[in-house]
């Protein structure tokens, strides 16, 4: 590919032709919000927050590719207004349990709500009951879910299982008269969120890799052993290499008062298998326990894609 020149918010940028606009912007420190995007996965356009104006047209930066001479604007008044409306939609009926939520302090919904100045709520809809679910080590609370589809995407593109899908549910839809009065993308996100949930529908058993939990931007997916155990800001992260196999994946041991509470990874750049994520309390002398865990660990490793270079 050839090198090209384009302008983002009047800033000259040189990059390879055909790169995704969102990646180009983020690599140069230009902020474009996106709550559904994963850097190593196919774009889903689920959240619409990455909308920008390119050569006078509305495009989505996660899916738009660069070309010579593009002029891109990321913060026009219309775009800022629509992003704020989308965040208002995400906040509708969202449970106010931030003080005890496992994600509080590292929640992207919290961050973007503040970033976009959502201090009032212009929309409402009757709430409905949603049953919690579980698969593998994951606990799924649909009341906290914003249906960003990150978990679906990572399971399909990075784990290779495609066990998770968006599934329909019966619930009130947004009033039709709002379709003409509120921003188009905000209404679309609201309509989808009102009618969808995440479900484990794959024929294979969950391999307990925990990638879906890792990428969840809110508290909808959490681990059984960590649920309601600690606030994120109380934990100290120590980065190390996983000791379970020769790959040596980067892992973050999150501790408090000398105890490991959970293991995390930088999901933008690498995966973890179930052994690395959940086997942090193993002791080398207990060879029999490790031997019994080996088959499940092997299946997790086979499902994960590791960059050994």
Automatic annotation (TrEMBL):
The keyword Membrane does not apply. InterPro entries: 2Fe-2S_ferredoxin-like_sf, 2Fe-2S_ferredoxin-type, 4Fe4S_Fe-S-bd, 4Fe4S_Fe_S_CS, Mopterin_OxRdtase_4Fe-4S_dom, NADH_UbQ_OxRdtase_Gsu_4Fe4S-bd, PSI_iron-sulfur_center. One of its GO terms (molecular function) is 4 iron, 4 sulfur cluster binding. Keywords: 4Fe-4S, Iron, Iron-sulfur, Metal-binding. Pfam families: Fer2_4 (PF13510), Fer4_7 (PF12838), Molybdop_Fe4S4 (PF04879), NADH-G_4Fe-4S_3 (PF10588). It comes from the Bacteria. Residues 235-302 form the 4Fe-4S Mo/W bis-MGD-type domain. Coiled coil: none annotated. Residues 78-117 form the 4Fe-4S His(Cys)3-ligated-type domain. Residues 2-78 form the 2Fe-2S ferredoxin-type domain. This is NADH OXIDOREDUCTASE I. It comes from Wolinella succinogenes (strain ATCC 29543 / DSM 1740 / CCUG 13145 / JCM 31913 / LMG 7466 / NCTC 11488 / FDC 602W) (Vibrio succinogenes).
